[in-house]
What we know:
By secondary structure, this protein is an alpha/beta fold. 33% of the residues lie in helices and 20% in strands.
Amino acid sequence: MTSQTDLIPEPGAVTVRGPGFLELGPATRLAAAGEGAERAGRLLRATLGTATGLPLAPGPAEEDDVVRLSVDPDAGEELGEEGYRLTVTARGVDLVGGSDAGLFWGTQTLRQLLGPDAFRRAPLPGRRWRLPLIEVRDRPRFRWRGLMLDVARHFMPKDGVLRYLDLMAAHKLNVLHLHLTDDQGWRVEIKRHPRLTEVGSWRSRTKFGHRASPLWEEKPHGGYYTQDDIREIVAHAAERHIRVVPEIDVPGHSQAAIAAYPELGNTDVVDTASLTVWDNWGISSHVLAPTDNTLRFYEGVFTELLDLFPDEFVHIGGDECPKDQWRASPAAQARIEELGVAGEDGLQSWFVGHFDTWLAARGRRLIGWDEILEGGLAPGAAVSSWRGYAGGIAAARAGHDVVMCPEQHVYLDHRQDGGEDEPVPIGYVRTLEDVYRFEPVPSELTEAESRHVLGTQANVWTEVMEDQGRVDYQVFPRLAAFAEVAWSALPGPAERDFAGFEARMAAHYRRLDALGVGYRPPSGPLPWQRRPGVPGRPLEGPPPNR
Length: 546
Ligand code: ACM
């Protein structure tokens, strides 16, 4: 093992300052001066207090046996926007953040150093809370370290999202992209359009397995977040320095919305009045009609969303919009003529462009899947590069910011082993090591172009993840490898020390155990993690390198 600690993600620099320990006990004080530090202190006292039973009472910074938290903007240059310096001596702990966020990430390192039981929610008898005498200087490689949760295909109840925010924080991830709408469900309350959730948030049955599977789960599935739930999620995230980026997918992936409001569909070619929320997987042919009514409807949706989500970015989807209905629809064809755009692709680009301008006028930035590049974008718009690297390369070269999330590397719905026991196997085999060797910045980019790579994101599509256990299984342990890719200054993919990472994972599995995460064990799925007889869609061979 090359690393001197078991920390994940691996920090920038670690100096061990001798043998021995600092032991935290009932008399240990927590000194947090200044607004940013107070906030981090409250959260640290709550989490460590729960795990250890120690009061960590407020105390003066000058004495011994104190955990001192502070924000030092002057150290920002050295530590970076989200960096921190953690020093443990026999006298106490000094944790300095270059910003509030840096201080918070430092508290996550402190928690890991206390051992796996620091991740529990009640103290175990006889535990001692020892910190190695150490100095850690650390800062992230990327400022966008994201996780996308598809809460549309299978709803993740609010508690599950709050839990995932806690898990993200423990891995120093800082962007939660919520995929809130799709053909199979609409998951956010919109007060001016109540049928979106009354009708659109549930389906009467669900395909069990890949769409070719003959199996059905013959019970209703659904759920949605009220606006207060969203406020709670956003605030819980903000306490942890995590941004929440909402996605409303348009103009494709919209069957649930059309089932709720049939006039949103292409009514001159299909009887949208009889449409229901989709119970199967795939890409629905039911897409939004390119009418003024549709634009006004979604402006209303986004107006409510801007009130709920303060982040600068709003994701509008824009992926996988089949053009068959627009080709067949006289109304859509008349619209193409009237707008003078280049066919159905031009119509799609006009639709995206409308919301690009609309969001920019409200001080926000549009982000969408890489299909939105087709037809040109406003300068401030950003791209989630999912169909390999190509979209991200094109976007960066055109001066757009990019989040790299190529499906062949960081789609965590893809199976993580080639074995027979893998539950509902989808896609290519992407092992823990494959994710560890993922490089977000394409080598084709120049130095200047690569500055447009904001960071990277792992995406979790949930067609075959019907509950928390299935999500945990697909996400972990690979999210730990992803977190290290997003945070740590790793060498090129071939030079990465996977053996060292695996050695640190021994401690990390124990942290995940303490957190109650149902990860895939290195030896393969546990009996109850299998789904015998439920067909998936495994793809063979190495994924295409694109
Ligand atoms: C996507 O996977 N359709 C973005």
